[in-house]
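Hi L., both proteins are below.
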Amino acid sequence: MTQAEIKLCSLLLHEHFGEIVEKIGTQLLRAGGQALRGIAGGTGLLLDQVKKALCVLIQHNLATFRPRRGGVEYEAQCGRILRILRYPRYIYTAKTLYGDTGELIVEELLLNGQLTMSAVVRKVADRLTETMEDGKTMDYADVSSTFVRLVDTHFVQRCPLVPEGPQSPEVPPPPAPTLLSSDKDMYTVPRLSLVGKGKRRRSCEEEDGEPRVKKQKQEGESSEAPPDDGIYWQVNIDRFHQHFRDQAIVSAVANRMDQTSSEIVRTMLRMSEVTTSSGAPYTQPLSSNEIFRSLPAGYNIVKQVLDQYLALLADDPLEFVGKSGDSGGGMYTVNLHKALASLATATLESVVEERFGSRCARIFRLLLRKKHLEQKQVEDFAMIPAKEAKEMLYKMLSESFVSLQEIPKTPDHAPSRTFYLYTVNVPAAARMLLHRCYKSVANLMERRQFETKENKRLLEKSQRVEAILASMQATGAEPAQLQEIEEMITAPERQQLETLKRNVNKIDASENQVDETIFVLESFIESTVKRP
């Protein structure tokens, strides 16, 4: 874990959970696993504050616990904390695939960490009802069906549970429970008869002659425990990452070949999305007949044309699609590891070109293709003058985009009797670029915080004016009164607010763009680690 990762995790925890949670999360990241007393001593916080902050981290799956030496040890999950940066992308993907209902379901689960299905359905139905006009309400059954679809496609999964069973009176209970998850029940939705409709927060103050608060209290006392009490659900982040990876592969095929090829690859990935694990090197083998039957109805291509496309994809040098060797060549798979390596390499090439220019990018691509070259060979193959080639190689070497390998002819390693070969170590270059991306996101977050802090007074004034306007519009104020309130913010202040909004939007867009690069590099590095 690098300092850049720790700093970015600290900023994310502070922005989303506050100062106390940030202190404890950073302490756990720096010191590793610690007991409760050790955390309190390292942060200088009260035990009660530490307990509450740890509850928040565990609730949001940002920390884990395990029994150790008669006590409990807590450990922060750096990789899971960094995923907070990708929450907007998860929510947008759910909206794209499952509409507004899917968007709000994923948003509620991310906001709360873990929730029961009944609680999610109720919250989402209430929020959707708030946005509806003409007094319409959202039915619980509609939200429930979307939730089931999210579970069926593995975007939402069950949380691990404490195993049930009789506890022996002779054996003392463990200091911390052991959470177990069953693959069989991970995506099994309990049968619930959720009947009802969403409620609006704004309603009459009194209903049936009783004050609203009193009626809610009576209803709460008489209500029973929900039928799915104890079964909690969470967002399956790995499944979202699998979807992002598939989208990147489809886009790369479309850019390299054509739309029909990308649609064939998309169909192959869609057929294997649930049956293939996120770390698998290949998708499940598929025959051309299976692919043909699963193509979208809009693609009116005959079987012979599909076979030609599959042959072209299999013969492509990038090898995104390959033939399954154990089935006589009649089955096709998508080579996920090679696809991720190609995406990471393309990212490195684009960064080199943007940072050092097209000639450096030419040398970089040459080294990728030829693997090992001496300086003289680089000059000849790239057709670049010796002085310029030397400067470019040293520049990329100092930035760790290329590396130098020494091969001595004699044991004394004399420079005159040693070959110096330039090469590109793609995994090492990807790790270096990933480290810089973490630094970039941390700098962007600090810049956004600085911009907001500098304009804090103006933002508070704008919020007060908007609140006054909203309340006056609700009471039916005259247009002249509303205009008078709006004029409380002067023209220069309005211009300053517009500039701030524009700057913050640019920073947010930059964060999302850098995160896309982070995702490609992280996926490639994970695939190299998991490779058998």
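That was the first. Here is the second:
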Amino acid sequence: MPQSVDLSVKSSNPPARQNPGAACEECRRRKVRCDRQQPSCGLCLSSGVQCQVTTPRPPRGPKRGYLKALQARIATLEGTLLQQQQHQQHTQNSNKNAISLPPEDNSIENLTFTDHTSLPWDFPIARDENATLHDLCQGMTPGTRSGTSSLDGGSVHTSTSPIQGFATPTDGMNFPDAVINRKIPELVDGLDGRNISNLMQADLDQLYFDRVHTFAPIIHQRRYFSWARSIAKTDARACLRYAMWTLAASVSAHYQNIGDSLYHYTRRALESLDSKGTGLMITELEQVQAWLLLAVHEFMCIDFSRGWVSAGRAFRLIQLNWLQYSDGPDISLGQTDWVDAEQRRRTIWLAYCLDRFVSVRNNSPITFSEQNPIRLPAPETDFQNEQPTSNGFLSDAVASRDSMSTSAFTECIVVATVIGRALCHRQQSMVDTLYLNESRDFWQRQEWINATLTQRMGVFSLNYPVALQDADPMLLFIGMMWHTTVLYMYQILKSVIHPTEEKMTVLADYTRQSTMAAKEIVGLTNKLSQLNSFKVHPLTPIPLSLCAEFFVSCHELGDTYNKQLQNIIEAMHGLMSFSNLTPGLGAYPR
């Protein structure tokens, strides 16, 4: 019996395939199995070779970040060589430029390059007899102040973040000082926003869909890439592509040094295209989309007033072709037609949101009415996969009390609608005060909007918990706008209420609500530092500035408000790329 027990134990525990320990270097070199005997294995003993075992072994392959650092060095060296070549050319040809600017007649015909046999670009390239092929056809992206390379798809950059305290990922690697401190400002002297290599085109396209499409989901990716590769593109599509690249460059440290050239070329192309419009011709959708994207870029990087005028151009083009954006009661379109109709819907809803958000910041009348026969946008997955979906209308979504799964874009439309109602309510109250009308309508509107606001904020919290809001810049912005609407309603009430016993209790309730809303905005502002700075919603300064105005108006309430005001102001000053949406920012102390 004991022997049988021993046999069963041996059968259940088979011997190991090899002895424990590391193989010796000789066996590794010959690629044979080592018996791991000490002090010398069998192979080394029979061949008379000293048996050496290396216990700590280095990891295979290059260390983390080495390849990207090497690519950055290569880009720096290439930039230095290109800088020297350009310096020599400028010395020899002081009165000539390597690449000329677009013609002064603003001709849109020059947007397409007809000779595609010698160069792989479909952009106009000014032929200069002294410009070398390397100068025009170099495939690397323009060097930045940090000396980065486009070989990694634009993910490597060491420039400082445009938001103070916001970390820009570098994959945990530290670049050498020689790479970080390298400055090549002359590298982009030969680029005017048109002579862009295929590698740069692909990189800018990807940057757009990674960082811009989230808050402006108006373009179908496969359709875009389909016509973008075509040689015969319409002028409107060419302008849209330039506008996409302009906005992509503005949210990238890698391409910011060509952003201005892209912007000026895009604007001139759009203005030239507008000047061609005659009669009652139907405006192409891509032209409207290009103006909207250009307006967003101008709000961020150029000038508030110029962005507002560009947005107005897009608004008027939509109104001029209003019938093609309207939906009927039934959607029975084919797959191709449905995608085109969905792109039109998304374009007008983006214009609708931009109209209301900027109007609230500027206290100007809104352009688009919420009473329109246009369905809400379909879910993003259905849109990109070309799955026809019939969504409801805006009135149904705003009045709904159910917690249902919606898209972030739809939530953005809903919050824009509610704050637009608050804006109209404020303007109507000013008219009533001017003409000494009865205030009964004011209180009815105030209660109606406040009830809708409370209901929709609850639905938003159920659909998108705090954990989801923290990870999504779009949801974070929507949450800020909901709380900003509470502050806006308080400011309206405070401006018209009379110091009577009856109404002071109502004002006290609104004061408590606005205080809580302001604290929530401060909490959401602190979470901005945990996001990639280039993915922050470009309209984020709007709720921040309105919240700062609330704290300024309540400065007498104590030091707590002053500390929260400082947090908001620091975030506003940190949004250097978006400061054009915060007029009067210098009035707030640091």
